[in-house]
Write a structure and sequence with these properties.
With 401 residues, the chain is α/β, with parallel strands linked by helices. It is built from 18 helices and 11 strands. The strands form 3 sheets. It has a 6-stranded parallel sheet, sandwiched between helices. Helix 2 links the parallel strand 2 and strand 3. It is elongated.
Length: 401
């Protein structure tokens, strides 16, 4: 029995064409839930992510081993017309195509939606790019760093009056990957339930991060208010901030519900503020934000972080430590939830982040770590295209694979 047979996407074939983060993150999710995800890579080089950041003893990125989990690696030379013809044959066998090249690249290879649709009208053609497939910015290079800025995410992040700050992550890419996953799944459901056939899913990093901006647009449109950066707070919600404790660690306290605020003030020994009618609702607390923050900052500075959190937990106030990955790996809650998934990598057990969300009947499962370059070329070409050993040898001689 296929080890993915009981997963929700078992039997779905996904061809991943692209590299680095946004498209491959979507492919990772689909693979974890049972899809057969075949990743096309350049012979001899592969995805650049293979050698990004921290490398293992074999010179391969730890990140690659995680992001490429459950995928099959096929090398294919798309710089040659015959290589593009092989890619076309693979596309015609797929349920979902994921590509994250700059708009026009697939068309230049003769592999755009218009080139494929007539022969494969059922295909879910999922495209991820910086700015989308249309519009005046479509042809611009679209890395997450720039697209997070253009989409408004960077503007609201940082300290007032200082240069905008990015998180030390490629957040725009992964958010776009989530949107690509949602789009592909919605299109699959439409194909199955509505008989709509295939369709194109157009995901941009800019619009993906813009989609995360909550009430920023309605507030500007309705009231002309521009949401500004607010440091470690959230504009218009008080108290929610980060506080330094006596041991030098930071904790976050979210005491912005009316009843929660009362419990919080009582817990920190400020019964007068708990009963103060000025602070009975969020509007009043916003007007006196600095007074409240000064009280909480002074209180936290007198206690070690674990002491402060025990007091807040006892009062049922939302709070938590600002954890590093070292803290997370020793956190009993993360351990109990199975957030760390051990996986064999060349005979060594490595921890990977378990896939989220959790399904109780058909949960995601990691079957193998990110593969070596071209590890599955022969197997996939034979399974998908039905070619024989002689054809494989011929394509190798022509440096197509």
């Amino acid at each position: 029995m296929n080890d993915s047979e009981n997963l929700p996407l078992a039997g779905i074939r996904v061809l991943e064409m692209g590299q680095l983060i946004a498209g491959p993150f979507a492919g990772q999710i689909l693979a974890a839930f049972g899809a057969e995800v075949v990743k096309i890579e350049t012979p001899g080089k592969g995805d650049p992510l293979r050698t990004w950041r921290v490398l293992d003893d074999e010179g391969t990125s730890y990140w690659w081993r995680s992001l490429a989990r459950n995928k099959k690696s096929v090398t294919l030379n798309l710089s040659k017309p015959d290589g593009c013809l092989i890619a076309r044959r693979l596309i015609l066998e797929a349920d979902v195509l994921i590509e994250n090249f700059r708009p026009g690249r697939m068309e230049a290879w003769g592999l755009g939606p218009g080139d494929i649709r007539q022969d494969h009208p059922e295909l879910i053609y999922t495209r991820v790019s910086g700015y989308g497939q249309t519009g005046p910015y479509a042809g611009k290079p679209g890395f997450a760093s720039a697209c997070e800025a253009v989409g408004g995410l960077r503007y609201v992040n940082g300290q007032p009056g200082e240069k905008p700050v990015r998180m030390n992550l490629s957040l725009g890419d992964t958010i776009a990957g989530l949107h690509a996953t949602i789009g592909a799944l919605m299109a699959l459901i439409a194909r199955q339930r509505l008989g709509r056939g295939g369709q194109m899913v157009d995901v941009s990093i800019v619009e993906s991060v813009f989609n995360m901006l909550e009430g920023v647009l309605p507030e500007f449109d309705g009231a002309g208010v521009v949401r500004e950066p607010s440091g470690s707070t959230v504009t218009g919600i008080v108290p929610t901030n980060t506080y330094r404790c006596r041991d030098g660690r930071y904790i976050v306290i979210g005491g912005n519900g009316d009843s929660i605020f009362k419990r919080l003030m009582s817990a920190v020994g400020q019964q007068g503020l708990a009963d103060d009618p000025r602070l009975a609702d969020n509007r009043g607390r916003v007007a006196h934000e600095q007074e409240i923050d000064d009280v909480l900052s002074a209180w936290s500075a007198t206690l070690d972080s674990d002491q402060a959190l025990r007091i807040l937990d006892k009062a049922d106030v939302p709070a938590g430590p600002v954890n590093s990955i070292a803290d997370i790996c020793n956190d009993p809650h993360f351990m109990a939830r199975g957030v760390f998934e051990p996986l064999n990598v060349n005979g060594k057990e490595r921890l990977m982040p378990a896939m989220h969300p959790r399904l109780d009947a058909t949960p995601a499962r990691s079957r193998w770590s990110g593969p070596s370059l071209g590890q599955h070329t022969g197997q996939v070409l034979q399974d998908w295209l039905g070619i024989d050993d002689n054809q494989l040898a011929s394509w190798k001689e022509q440096h197509l694979i």
